[in-house]
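Illustration: Medium/long-chain acyl-CoA thioesterase YigI.
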Amino acid sequence: MSTQLLEARRVFEVAPFIRDLGCQLIALDDGFCESRIALETRHQQQDGFVHAGVQATLADHTAGTAAVTLISEGELVLTAEFKINLLRAAKGRYLLCRSQVLKPGRSLSVVESEVFVERDDGQQVLVSKATVTLAVLQST
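Result:
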């Protein structure tokens, strides 16, 4: 396995906030990452739907991990900007995210994330879509 793919796996294992949310890495390839969260009460807002912050965090982190697969050794990525469209209320068993790098770059990479909720019947419904711009930096 390439150094970049190993580093991308590490991103899910060591980030304390991501571990606390219960984010799990599902699939990883060059320029692509898929993740999920088994939904619990703690992920809900006041009306019982998945909190927008949970969706945004999963979209952002999964996008960053997809970008990490395409950077060079000694580099890291940090979110510079992101925009999320919350398309419908989310309620179900799992929150899933698929992120694909749209434009890798030496200083900025742009990644698209699609977030789905998996309902009790197994149906996956698109609930949000994000565009994430990541700065590529030298690690120190």
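Reading the tokens back as a structure: The chain has three helices and six strands.
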